[in-house]
Write a structure and sequence with these properties.
four-stranded mixed beta sheet, 81 residues, 2 helices, globular
């Protein structure tokens, strides 16, 4: 796929969400950044109470082939009263 967009899922994604390495490869190739963003939005629907997945563009000095990283950002927990 010549115009592909490579995304890597960081460890926090598998530790703190329902997503598992049995279901998803560590790296996922999309046809565009827009498709990668849509995938993240869709995945967030299943665990929005715990936090959210976010897509971060790889740093310009990142020597990998990855275009972006998906990380998990825990949400603010609200105690039931």
């Amino acid at each position: 796929m010549p115009d592909s967009y490579l995304v890597e899922l960081k460890d926090s994604v598998f530790r703190e969400t329902p997503l598992s390495e049995d279901e998803f490869d560590r790296q996922i190739e999309f046809s565009s950044e827009t498709d990668a963003e849509a995938w993240v939005v869709n995945q967030n629907r299943s665990h929005s109470k715990a936090g959210e997945l976010t897509l971060h563009t790889a740093h310009p000095k990142d020597k990998s082939d990855v275009d972006s990283y998906v990380v998990f950002n825990p949400g603010a927990w609200v105690m039931d009263s």
